[in-house]
Design a protein that fits this description.
Layout lengths: L8 H9 L9 H5 L5 H10 L5 E5 L2 E4 H11 L9 H24 L6 H27 L2 H14 L4 E10 L2 H12 L4 H8 L9 E6 L5 H9 L9 E3 L2 E12 L5 H27 L33
Helix pairs in contact: 1-11, 4-5, 6-11, 7-11
Length: 315
């Protein structure tokens, strides 16, 4: 019955605040990943990036290349492939790729126009990703994360929550009978276990929820009640509800630790979006006119179009 709620109130505010990131291009979608450079930096200290880990027909493969390959193909690897097995898989992939590249070079494929076009595209993409990663690193610091968190806490209104129990039945007459018993002081949890059709082993306990998390009819009735009150029967798409309010409070604000990752993601995306917006504003972009569509060729064996009738006035 609850509407799906994916993140806490503050996290939702952060997500909505970065809605402007949906610029008309895939740049940010492809560049959202560089949000956690710290772990990579720690790994880099453990292994010399210039260390040669293998050679393929005399061509060295260095630790830095293995790290790049792992970043490239890592998301597609099975989660259970970890540790040394994962490293070995990545190295094998890089070895095969080097062998194939050597074979392509021997056939002078690197000198073809098609290859040069792909190489130019790959260079442009790599430069874009390098710049976006740099912006991500500049945007994220402990000071900026905490400042952003505090600003959102101050600007976010406190949502009211209620803690309620409910009993759900199909028949209005039955709902009125149960509501009468509950209002007379009978144990609500026991009544829920006895009568509720939705498996009320927990006594109909719904926990805490905000108004937006419930269907409108239920929410309107629940939030009008005071602590300890029992409602009259309420009709919704699910049936007839009897509601009891156990508690009312302002929704607790999530702690910094709970939303730190989302704050960091917000800062990264905002910095990258700001950069793209600025570059677009300063750029001169000219698009060529779309070529005119060619007339469709006649199908083989199709009859020639009939000649236009002669103008009678010219006869």
């Amino acid at each position: 019955m609850k509407r799906s709620v994916h993140i806490a109130a503050l996290a939702a505010a952060l997500a909505s605040s970065v809605a402007f990131v949906s610029l008309s291009g895939p740049v940010l979608a492809q560049s959202a990943a560089p949000a956690a450079p710290a772990a990579k930096a720690a790994d880099a200290k453990a292994v010399d990036p210039d260390a040669v880990v293998a050679t393929v027909n005399g061509t060295p493969i260095r630790a830095s290349e293995v790290a790049i390959a792992a970043e490239d193909i890592g998301p597609g690897l099975p989660p259970q492939l970890q540790g040394a097995a994962r490293q070995e898989y990545v190295l094998s992939f890089l070895t095969d790729m080097t062998l194939l590249a050597q074979a392509g070079e021997a056939q002078k494929l690197d000198q073809t126009p098609a290859f040069k076009e792909r190489l130019a595209y790959a260079r442009t993409k790599a430069l874009m990703e390098a710049l976006m990663t740099q912006e991500a690193k500049k945007a994220v610091s402990e000071e900026m994360k905490r400042k952003t968190y505090e600003e959102f806490v101050k600007s976010s209104p406190a949502d009211q929550e209620v803690h309620a129990r409910h009993i759900l039945v199909d028949d209005e007459a039955k709902a009125k009978e149960i509501a009468k018993k509950a209002k007379a002081g009978e144990d609500f949890a026991k009544l829920a276990k006895e009568y509720s059709k939705d498996g009320a082993d927990d006594g109909g306990d719904l926990g805490y929820f905000t108004k937006e998390q419930m269907v409108p009819e239920f929410a309107e009735a629940a939030f009008k009640l005071d602590k300890g009150q029992v409602s009259d029967p309420v009709k919704s798409q699910f049936g007839w509800h009897i509601i009891k309010i156990e508690d009312k409070r302002n929704k607790p604000v999530p702690t910094y630790e709970q939303v730190e990752g989302q704050v960091e993601q917000y800062l990264v995306r905002k910095a990258q979006a700001d950069l793209v917006t600025k570059l677009r504003a300063d750029a001169k972009v000219e698009k060529a006119a779309a070529p005119a569509a060619a007339a469709p060729a006649a199908a083989p064996g199709a009859a020639a179009p009939a000649a236009a009738p002669a103008d009678p006035a010219k006869k």
